[in-house]
Amino acid sequence: MGSGVKTETATIAELFEPRGLNTPRGRQTRTDGWVGGRADTWPGHYRENPASRAGADARRMATDGNYASDVAEALRGKDRVAANGAPDAELTLEPLSPGIGVVVHNVDLARPTEAQVQGIWHLLMERKVVFFRDQGHITREEHVAFGKRFADVGMAYGRQKSLSARELPDEHPEILRLHANEARPFVAANWHSDVTWSDRPPLGSILLSRKSPPVGGDTVFADAFALWDSLSPVLKTFLKSRFAIHGRGGRDEAQHPICRTHPVTGKTALYINPTFTNSICGMELADSARLLAQLYAKMYSTPEHTCRFRWRDGSVAMWDNRSAQHYAVSDFWPHERRMERVTLVDPSPEDEVPFWEDEEGERHYSVRIAAQEEIDTPVEY
Ligand SMILES: O=C(O)CCC(=O)C(=O)O
Ligand SMILES: [Fe+2]
């Protein structure tokens, strides 16, 4: 559909120009609010979304002092939560950005107390990704044991041992080894949430750096709740009940809600990614490709929705795949970067399968659309 052509509820132009921000003026051709611009595409989302702190409603704030102080107090409160999120667990916190990511100090992952485990889980739900430093002493067994304090530990890809037939067999099928060096330059430099080609994608991961490059190789995380929140109300309505098809290597394997309800927090995440999402169900392929391209341009051009972690030997990142996406920055070759990952799967069968919960509380679950044997078979890239 070209712009101006009617979809069921809105034109593509209406979906993407709720405040006319993309309307060029004079000789201006940039697309404010979409690529390399502020994400404040609709008035009033400042309460949900850190990306609009610097000026979304600047005009109203300048003229209405009560409104400005009300907003300021709400945001200061959020910042206090980010800095003191787990008061009982005696953890020292270093938030990486207002919305996502926190470094947790004062904990030894080889022997965390029960209060610390609970505090870390609470922080993971609030911050979407938590980080630890100086954990290089933990053994593979301790890495797995730490994961088991939170959920079931799956195989390298959650329910599956290997992604590609080329991967070497490993005596620890639950440890995914991501080794890059001069001879093996591969790193996951593409935005994604893990294993969305499966109808049962893993809950999260605990990634440990055994060897970090002297420069480069950071990992960037994006807040999938903020990605959803920053869409215009018109676009949210258009996407709300829709599903997208995901798979590896262009195969169609699973169908997931685009708007995913988090099973613990009940918050809504935008659950599409350019690595595994093939198309939006019920749309012509060309229309779907255009809409996905515009969504990705918006999703990945807002630094306020992200945090960036600089690895050192022994650093750990623990993320929630239901609320965050990630991207490993591929700028360290030819240096060595050796990572080991433990993958968490949700022990609850109802919560493990992604769903969207509608206004009546009914859950609309993901659907497997390839045969189970096909999904269980590694693919070649
Ligand atoms: O290497 C990294 O930093 C992240 C790799 C990745 O995408 C993963 O472990 O899921
Ligand atoms: Fe990943």
Q: What descriptors fit this protein?
A:
22% strand, binds 2-oxoglutaric acid, globular, alpha+beta, disordered N terminus, 381 residues, 4-stranded antiparallel β-sheet, binds fe (ii) ion, Double-stranded beta-helix
Residue share in helix: 10-25%
The H-level CATH homologous superfamily of the largest domain, spelled out, is: Clavaminate synthase-like
The percent range for strand residues is 15-25%
Q: Characterize the overall form.
A: globular
What is the CATH third-level topology name of the largest domain? Double-stranded beta-helix
Spans of at least 5 consecutive residues with low confidence: 1-8, 17-22, 30-48
- Please tell me the CATH architecture of the largest domain by its name: 4-Layer Sandwich
Structural account:
Residues 1-8, 17-22 and 30-48 have low confidence and may be disordered. 24% of the residues lie in helices and 22% in strands. The chain has helices at 12-16, 58-63, 65-84, 114-127, 140-148, 224-229, 233-239, 285-299, 349-352, 372-376, and strands at residues 92-95, 102-105, 129-132, 152-153, 175-180, 204-211, 219-223, 243-246, 254-257, 259-261, 268-270, 277-280, 306-309, 316-320, 324-328, 337-345, 355-357, 363-365, 367-368. The strands form five sheets. Strands 1, 2, 3, 4, 5, 6, 14 and 16 form an eight-stranded mixed β-sheet that branches. A four-stranded antiparallel β-sheet has the order 12-8-9-19. It is α+β, with helices and mostly antiparallel strands and 381 residues long. The radius of gyration is 21 Å and the shape is globular. The chain has two domains: 43-84; 91-381, Clavaminate synthase-like (Double-stranded beta-helix, 4-Layer Sandwich). The chain binds 2-oxoglutaric acid and fe (ii) ion. Residues 188, 192, 194, 326 line the site of fe (ii) ion.
